[in-house]
Amino acid sequence: MTMLSPEEWEAVWLTLAVAARAVAFGLPLAVLTAWVLTRYRFPGRGLLNALVHLPMVLPPVVTGWLLLIVFGIRGPIGSLLLHWFGIRLVFTTAGASLACAVMTFPIMVRSIRLALDSIDGGLEQAARTLGAGWLDRLINITLPLASPGILVGGIVGYATSLGEFGAVITFAANIPGQTQTLPLAIYAALQSPGGETKAAELSMVSLTLALIGLLLSEWCGKRLNAMLGR
Amino acid sequence: MSFSVTLNHRFPSVRMDIAFQVPSPGVTVLFGPSGAGKSTIINAAAGLLRPDNCRIQVDGTVLADTGTNIWIPPERRRVGLVFQDSRLFPHMTVATNLRFGMRRVAPGSIHFDEVVDLLGVGALLNRRPHNLSGGERQRVAIGRALLAQPHLLLMDEPLASLDSARKAEILPYLTRLKTALHLPILYVTHALDEAVQLADSMVLLEAGHVVAHGTVSDVAARADLPLARRDDAGALLLCRIAENDVPRALTRLEGGGATFWVPLLDLPVGAGCRMRIPAREVILASQPPEAISLHNIVPGTVRRIAGDAVRRSVIVEIALPDGGLLSRVTPDAVAHLGLAEGVPVLALIKSTSIEVLGQ
């Protein structure tokens, strides 16, 4: 395999950074959503559940288009962000992260929900009789016990973010050095004459990253579960 | 001081209507079949279940009163709860588990080292719950509940998940605990052997109602209760060692206003113990027999006669000056001896059939 060119390296680093930001913002929100969905029954719970899972079943292009509608500079949230904080998401690196976060959100929520569901409710009850209030229980009992699921959710979310295509290209466009992540760079290479070698090289990088992500999540999950005595 | 519970709750299949008051401190055993309401009482006392109507009071502190809208949430109730399935936190060491409740209350009279010593868990402190045996786990769970400085300790079948060897390992710790702590303890069990060893008071429950409650010796000596129709039915007497006759290898016990001889015990004169006399081991007579190997011929009066159709036998309750005995005999024997309420009778008990339980 020939060495990657500086532009190709840029695409690799950009991809890693975009995915990292997607998980950094998406994961805490996914934990909160999963916790609310597993622990509380409230009107609109079904709707929230459906909304969370929508990106998984929608064509990614449609998700990207919906993001444009909502977060575009004339969109209801996008215009506010621009007006108040001067933040523009559309066609930016931050926008690519947002698209990745939305696309991987259902995967993260599902993994965390599974972990929360598997926690013995009796442990929280025991903590309660020992004087622990709800926040105390969440921090000291629920989250540590769900940590394998949260970590695995984060890693799988990260690995999936590396490969997001449709929503990213629709919402953030394909700008080299700004929003051109690996899959977008591969697509661009395939579109240009004589780009097959470049596409093959980038595909190998993509494959390697995905594999590392999967192995890492497996290993971390096992280690944490062993620590919890499961 | 006392501990009182009044509780009404309608479940889809059964209605609970429970009321009792027992002295505090002391161990109160809730005894009865599944679905009788034992767990309902425990959960309501802990605050994990909110009954339709209830009033729960411990030593002057009202924990819950639906009449005046008092409901202290479980996390502020200071009620220790030991579950059947220990429920230790798997991500914490034994020491961290023990300190969980302790760190969340003001320091109290129950100290860490004292509890570790009392329950013999010193060697386990750095282990994780999944490396412990069932009995060890239960001891840690008891310690964890105690260190939260509870005003009331609830134990929901703490030994039910253990085999008899593990049970025998823990019971002495529980008896030690009972004497070392001045706490009201509510103890749920299906097992009569746990009840007779630990109980000061007993509440008998059936289908959501209190069938009887009182001191353990009073409840155990009643022929009309379902307890008396068990195969292992028997009276329980609290007694004191009066004399150790070493040459004859006998110990004399005073209890229930009567004297009993049992094979020599290792307890000093004056020590307290409890004595269980199985109903099926008690022979009745109207005249003292002569030339017999028996040491115990206890005079009493027939207080009650109850039939047990299933076993085609009769349970006779014999009043002693300060307590009572049970005897299981045949209906024929009752007719033959002319037994009826108020008739004087002699209870003949082999000294080897009396079970002495340490206090």
Explain what the structure shows.
The complex is a heterodimer of chains A (230) and B (359). Chain A is an all-alpha fold. Chain A is 78% helix and 0% strand. Chain A contains ten helices and no strands. In chain A, helix 2 (45-57) packs across helix 5 (93-117), helix 6 (121-129) runs antiparallel to helix 7 and helix 7 (134-161) runs antiparallel to helix 10. Chain A is globular and about 70 Å long. The N and C termini of chain A lie far apart (43 Å). The mean pLDDT of chain A is 89. Chain B has helices at 38-46, 74-77, 94-102, 112-119, 134-147, 164-180, 192-198, 216-220, 331-337; strands at 2-10, 15-23, 26-31, 53-58, 61-65, 70-71, 79-82, 152-156, 184-189, 201-206, 209-215, 234-245, 250-255, 258-263, 272-278, 282-285, 296-308, 313-320, 323-329, 344-349, 355-358. Chain B has two domains: 2-220, P-loop containing nucleotide triphosphate hydrolases (Rossmann fold, 3-Layer(aba) Sandwich); 234-358, RNA polymerase II/Efflux pump adaptor protein, barrel-sandwich hybrid domain (OB fold (Dihydrolipoamide Acetyltransferase, E2P), Beta Barrel), CATH 2.40.50.100. The longest helix of chain B has 17 residues, at 164-180. Chain B has 359 residues and is of the alpha+beta class. In chain B, helix 3 runs parallel beside helix 5 (134-147) and helix 4 packs antiparallel against helix 5. In chain B, the strands form four sheets. A six-stranded mixed sheet of chain B has the order 7-8-9-3-10-11, with helices on both faces. In chain B, strands 2-1-4-5-6 form a five-stranded antiparallel sheet, with helices on one face. Chain B has nine helices and 21 strands. At the A-B interface, helix 6 and helix 7 of A face helix 2 and strand 7 of B.
